[in-house]
Amino acid sequence: MEKTFDEKYIKSISIYISLSFMLILFVVLFSDKLYGIFGEQNYTAVHLLSEIFTIIVAMSIAMQLWLTSRFKLINVDVYMGALFLSLAILAIFHTISYKGMPFFIIESSPYQATWFYIITRLLISVGLLCIVLMKAKSITTMHRNIVFLISMILTFAFICVIYLPDKVLPPLVIEGMGTTLLKNTMQYFSLGTQIVLIIILLKQFNLAPKRSLLFIAASIYIIISDIFFTTYRDVYDIYNFTGHLFQLFTYVAILKAVYYTTVEFPFISMIKANDHLESSRKEMHHMAYYDEITKLPNERFLIESINKSFTENLEQKTVLVLEFDRILAIKSSLGSFYSEQILKMAAERITEIVGEKYFVSKLRIDQFVIFIKSHKDKEEIMALCKQLQLSMSKPFHIQHFSLTGNLNIGIAHYPMDSTSSENLIKHAQFAMYEAGKVPERILSYESSMLNARTKRVELENDLYKALEEDQLFLQYQPQLNIQTGEINSMEALVRWNHPIKGWISPADFIPIAEESGLIIPFGKYVLETACKQTVELQKVINKPIKVAVNLSVGQLFQENFIDIIKEVIQETKIPPHQLELEITESMTMNTNYITPILKELKEIGLTVAIDDFGTGYSSLSYLKDLPIDCLKIDRSFVQKISNKDDQEPLVDMIISMAQHLKLDVVAEGIETIEQLHYLNEKKCDFIQGYYISKPINIEDLSERFNEIEQFALETIQGMKMT
């Protein structure tokens, strides 16, 4: 939208309007002397010439908008183009039906000519008013074609009505008497519409000054034209010719407005953009070779430096790729500000250790590269890696958060691993991805890693088919209420049975789904299926049971997430209080964002649990303010319980804290009676794990529910007796 305004432009428009009013004054003062100035025999030709010019301008407007709308399909431009195409066609028929013109279909007469004229007058007034009031929006090519087609159909339909042998419309001019009341009424209605249009354009003036000014000028011209057309005595009156002249001025002003918006303004904008790019060349050069966040050389600079070093000597060179493994989680939960701050701090720590000895660079995907040009033995490289890891292990303090993570490092050597700069970096990346799976988190590239990455890509491709071909299904793990011995809740767990590769662990495909964005449709499938199957299970076991469903970061940060939840509840008819949503602890870091979402979920009637509690970054001061209902103790803490006499301080602390905050506690991964005894003594609320039941299909759970619950009840009763 145009925002600037050129004072020279308004000055030039003012000159045109001033000259126009001087012309009006001249015509009014000397109208009697100018009567019949063109000669009686020439008035038909004069009318023909004035209308030809008007038709040319109207058709130019239509063609201009038809051609330019191909590149920018805006409804306002399309409707205006269709309007002026109709006006041009009607003006043609007005001209050829004017009294004195040669025979066309029927004898020329004031009836046809005046009706064609008055319709063009009404069309341009009402049409422009509607277009100015219209909200600009993008449309399709099909929409454009339909609008122009409808315009043509309606225009020729009206032409057919005018040329009917029996006149169905009342006459607008009576020879010897002049114009009728109907004709003058429509003429003045057109004039009034133009006044309304001017008022609206003045209100919108600041949005598009030049365009508005030209349309205001056009409206003034057409008002003047209407005044002359309703006051002339006969066709020889100079007022008649002046009316045609101002009608032409109207179309020219609109053509200039259309030309400005479709050609001049975009062209000027392009020139300004080019000037800005030229003036910013140095800045852009820096941007092309340096990372904006860390100010380190970027990937382009790195590759050029590596290639240059290859030409200097052929001795061994080494590339290290480093990645802070919590960047993605921090960005998803806390936002890009925190992840960018960590990248800046990490760059400072790396630069402080490496100094100017080696080339330090930043890749586009939040990874760092250290390029070692000269030969270094394995011990030196490993020592550097350990030093980097030690530096990165210290917490990153950002505002009120203290964020920690691990540094994964991949190593590739030239020329053993690759003689190409791109492949050398890629192989070091492969090693870095695999390094996250080993305790040291440092690995050198091996050819087998390429196969592992290939399999990962294949698995990602297979994931796209998994939903379509019903390869995914759910299993449920019952949750036992320790106090009552009842099973009144369960957790839904997604599983994948690949038609060729067989059973694939969630630990393998869930991270891929999150990285690829497939976690959104996966999450919706799990939510819908879990709610539907839970409702069916309740009918079989004849008792209410709650289902817990895990949420991903991607789902939680969807714009329409709350609407999706409401839709699923409505479609599956599950009572809201029987659905629990589990979020990870890292999702709670951005409290400003997540708190309103959790409050909306609570208002619906759902319960919310924090899964794998104790492994993330939750601040206890914020935890008490979050609208949650339950904490789930991560299985890694539970597995450390060996017998009921041992103390597990983290488990004790979580249970105690939950009790203080009046939250339920679910302990995951219960595999032994000793763990159950311990949790019972600590007054844990719920447990789930293989000791009670492994995750099972909904069909098996329906059949075995009473059996599982009976076993759980007997276990709890026996435990309490001892």
Description of the structure:
By secondary structure, this protein is α/β, with parallel strands linked by helices. The chain has 25 helices and 19 strands. Strands 10-11-13-14-15-16-17-18 form an eight-stranded mixed barrel, surrounded by five helices. α17 packs across α25. The mean pLDDT is 85.
Brief summary:
This protein is α/β, with parallel strands linked by helices and 722 residues long. It is 59% helix and 13% strand.
Q: Bin the helical content.
A: 55-70%
Figure out the total of helices.
25
Class by SSE composition: alpha/beta
Low-confidence stretches: none
Query: What's the story with the biggest beta sheet?
Result: 8 strands, mixed, barrel
Give me the Rg, rounded. Answer: 40 Å
